[in-house]
Predict the structure.
Amino acid sequence: MKKKEGCKIFSTTTPVGLFSPEHLCFLAGAAFFCAAVIFTGGRLEQKGRKRLLLTLWAAFTAIELGRYVYFAFHPDAFNIRTGLPFHLCSVSLFTYPLAVFTQKPVFRNFIYAVNMPGALFALITPDIGNATALSFYFLHLMAAHTLIVLIPLYMVSCGFFRPDYRWLPGVTLMLLVTMTPALLLNRLLGSNYFFINGPVKGTLTEQLAGWVGEDAYLLPMAALLAAVWAILYAPFAASDFIRKKEEAKAK
């Protein structure tokens, strides 16, 4: 008797391709989940919003730490050149509690201006490798990065903080500080944490390197980050400008 084939969208044998049905399905699910959480948070009172924020942070922390529990039971899956928490999105394990549990604007602007767009690019052009749709690697990648994007969006949407471009110099300094361990490890291990030493195949970094060469691809990356910051902060800066102009007229 012929066995029934499994779901073709979620193949357990075929690697996930960039913008394949599997990838697009997970992206759509991530977008729906983020919209649903933000909508729910908007209907809650302040205490409920805070509890939901803590739940999101706890879920992200559990998922990210679960990666190292997985490595403990599957040591062959661990590679010291890629598995340490020194990539930009892995650094969220340290920056997100600072943003959630303190009132420091620099931390909250950092996760909004750096962690969030980095995770969004990782969702859109992930470093999938040979992972299948139901593999731990792919499921962890999509779940963790979705929460990295969602938490700052939720905090802004639900009034926990308002992005302020005047904190971008502090954000830049914090980014350089977080990159320092990656620079040292890359020199010591020959790794590519923070993708400093070169692009990753199949990701946005590879496309940028194709335009300017691998030795100079960090320059368009920096320009791209500046453009992203302009997009992320322009609505708030414009709103503040209009408000101040109206206040000046009213005096």
Remarks:
- The two ends are 85 Å apart (CA to CA).
